[in-house]
Design a protein that fits this description.
- Chain A: This is ABC transporter permease.
- Chain A: It is a multi-pass membrane protein.
- Chain A: Keywords: Cell membrane, Membrane, Transmembrane, Transmembrane helix, Transport.
- Chain A: InterPro entries: MetI-like, MetI-like_sf.
- The complex is a heterodimer of chains A (about 260) and B (about 325).
- By secondary structure, chain A is mostly helical.
- Chain A has one domain: Orthogonal Bundle (MetI-like fold).
- Chain A is about 85% helix and about 0% strand.
- Chain A starts with a helix and ends in a 9-residue tail after the last helix.
- By secondary structure, chain B is an alpha/beta fold.
- Chain B folds into two domains: about 210 residues, D-Maltodextrin-Binding Protein, domain 2 (3-Layer(aba) Sandwich); about 100 residues, 3-Layer(aba) Sandwich (D-Maltodextrin-Binding Protein, domain 2).
- In chain B, the strands form two sheets. A five-stranded mixed beta sheet of chain B has the order 2-1-3-10-4, sandwiched between helices. In chain B, strands 7-6-8-5-9 form a five-stranded mixed beta sheet.
- In chain B, helix 6 links the parallel strand 6 and strand 7.
- The longest helix of chain B has 23 residues.
- Classes of the chains: A mainly alpha (about 260), B alpha/beta (about 325).
- Chains A and B meet through helix 10 of A and helix 4, helix 7 and helix 8 of B.
């Protein structure tokens, strides 16, 4: 047997395994090359190296202050919207009347651009955390309500009939049949919401804030420090990505049975 | 004897406790900026760092704003007590609505609006802008005054091609040749110059105040409720603030350090460069004639006439003297 064959397939295997990382690295290298060779000034498109320098020019403790401000608002808004969305979905699933009353209201809230309402919320609730949390909550709770309600309604009718024929009380029907069936839907809603939570926090910071990554980005552009703004932006997307992943990990950890079966 | 000692000791302890609590209970004031921290916003930071507010037994909290009207709204709704904003925006707001905010101290006695062009563009005066492309930001107060300054130079809005863009994009647009001129405040001059230098270009500013647009601009405004309910606090604040302005322009380098200490994202050097480049907005012929800290009725009237024309308001929509409260000017 030829010895090179397994080596070749090993390389192929590794290349395949690290394809996403290689693609990403390639993209960054290309970006750097375009900036360097094309002599693109930093205020139009900062090069990756300029962004990295800008990132380390800002003290670590400042990054943590801004990160904590944004994360705090995003997570509070996210938790608040879970607390509102779950009971609301259960109510809407159980009562046709409630569904008819609330659904149009929810659609109105969702289709109102929060960016436009944000200044009004700040005037009403002040410039502290409560208004920012409310803005975040308004952006995040709709996908949760929709996915949870859909999930609960998609419970196989046989299961419901079985539970009814066994005279199970309604709370058991909800907690032991409908909610478990809705878990995959709830988690897809949570994944959408958590990324929206970061967007919500940033929108709120654009309107009124003294710290936070959104504020930092706005601040950097106001001083024409574009590489620094990019550094903030990239930091923000990494946080967003990590939060998205965390929701997935929580699902794997708590509800492994709810994951689609691997082929 | 022993008990007397004890009593004295206890009494003095009590006295020091009272003294310390009264020191702790300094009067709280929320100061509203009309934009993000930067060179022209340095005085309030200087006042805190140099202890001018502490000397008056004041504890000042600073809130950043997102434009003149945003700052006005926050003062009107009581979220802030006092702050800096454009007196023109206040006049326009009071002419249309019963906004409970008044001006208490002038800060910029000349308008900060300006055109910026590249040195090699061949544009030397405002009249040269005929037929040129000019970029401005969507929400700047300069836009309202643009027709006036064009008119004073024999131009109309049809003579220029006006485009709107994000404030951060203006100077790059001009440096890359996407626009012939831009409209911005002279507070940006130091930043623009640094940016143009990076691209090997030179920038010239053409302030509108040199072309006939002479009016009050950024001022210290206060909510009427704050002035009514805590006149003594207001008086002490305004005194300390006037001192802070003076210090900031006298020692711009120190002012830069002070601001940087409170807002580490801002470079001390940029702040001091900004302060140096806008000194003439704060100290100029107007302040020489009228004295620092005084609004004169004639100039207030003139400012209102400009504001009314710029915003399409009738002159009788507002008695401009009601916009000012001069009772708090420090002696």
């Amino acid at each position: 047997m030829n010895q090179t064959l397994p080596l070749k397939s090993w390389i192929q295997h590794q290349a395949n395994r690290f394809a996403p990382a290689l693609f990403f690295i390639g993209l960054v290298v290309l970006w750097e090359l375009i900036c360097q060779l094309g002599n693109v000034p930093n205020y139009i498109l900062p090069s990756p190296s300029a962004i990295i320098t800008a990132f380390f020019d800002v003290e670590f403790s400042r990054w943590m202050t801004h990160l904590w401000a944004t994360l705090r608002v995003a997570l509070m808004g996210f938790v608040l919207s879970i607390c509102i969305a779950l009971p609301l979905s259960i109510g809407m699933m159980r009562s046709e009347l409630m569904n008819r009353i609330l659904y149009p209201a929810l659609i109105v809230i969702q289709s109102t651009p929060v960016v436009a309402v944000a200044p009004l919320i700040i005037v009403l609730l002040g410039t502290d955390d409560p208004s920012r949390v409310l803005i975040t909550c308004l952006i995040t709770f709709f996908p949760l309500v929709v996915s949870t309600t859909t999930g609960m309604l998609e419970t196989p009718p046989e299961m419901i009939e079985l539970s009814q024929s066994l005279r199970a009380p309604r709370y058991r029907e909800t907690w032991q049949i409908r909610i478990p069936y809705a878990i995959p839907h709830i988690f897809s809603g949570l994944r959408v919401s958590i990324t929206l939570a970061i967007i919500g926090a940033v929108v709120a910071e654009f309107v009124a804030a003294e710290e936070g990554l959104g504020y930092f980005i706005q601040f950097s552009t106001s001083f024409f420090k574009i590489p620094q703004a990019f550094a903030g932006l990239i930091f923000l997307s990494i946080i967003s990505l990590l939060l998205f992943k965390s929701v997935q990990w929580i699902q794997v950890w708590l509800f492994p049975w709810s994951l689609p079966k691997k082929k | 004897m022993k008990t007397a000692m004890k009593t004295t000791l206890r009494l003095s302890l009590l006295a020091s406790l009272i003294a310390s609590t009264s020191a702790m209970a300094a009067d709280k004031v929320t100061f509203q900026l009309d934009w993000l921290p930067g060179g022209d916003k340095a005085p309030v930071y200087v006042g805190i760092q140099q202890g001018f507010f502490a000397d008056e037994d004041l504890e000042v909290k600073i809130a950043s704003g997102r434009g003149s009207t945003d700052a006005l709204t926050k003062m009107a709704t009581g979220q802030s007590d006092i702050g800096s904003s454009d007196i023109g925006a206040l006049m326009a707001a009071r002419a249309q609505d019963d906004v409970p905010v008044v001006a208490v101290l002038p800060y910029f006695t000349q308008a900060p609006h300006a055109f910026f062009v590249l040195k090699n563009s061949g544009i030397k005066s405002i009249t040269d802008l005929k037929g040129k492309k000019i970029a401005t930001s969507p929400f700047t107060s300069s836009n309202a005054f643009l027709p006036l300054v064009l008119k004073q130079n024999g131009l109309t809005e049809d003579d220029i091609q006006l485009v709107k863009s994000d404030p951060g994009a203006l100077s790059p647009m001009m440096i890359t040749g996407n626009t012939d001129a831009i409209i911005a405040w002279v507070t940006n001059t130091a930043l623009f110059k640094a940016q143009a230098e990076g691209a090997g270009k030179e920038i010239i500013e053409m302030p509108w105040s040199n072309s006939g647009l002479s009016l009050y601009s950024s001022s210290l405004l206060a909510s009427e409720r704050f002035l009514e309910e805590r006149p003594d606090v207001a008086k002490r604040f305004i005194k300390a603030f006037a001192k802070s302005i003076e210090f900031s322009y006298q020692y711009p380098d120190k002012a830069g350090e002070n601001l940087h200490k409170m807002v580490p994202e801002v470079d001390a050097e940029i702040v001091s460069a900004q302060l140096k480049s806008i000194t003439n907005l704060v100290y100029n012929d107007v302040t020489k004639k009228d004295g620092f800290g005084n609004f004169t009725p004639a100039r207030i009237q003139k400012t209102w006439e400009y504001v009314a024309e710029a915003n399409g308001l009738t002159l009788d929509a507002l008695d401009p003297s009601t916009v000012v409260n001069s009772k708090f000017v420090p002696e």
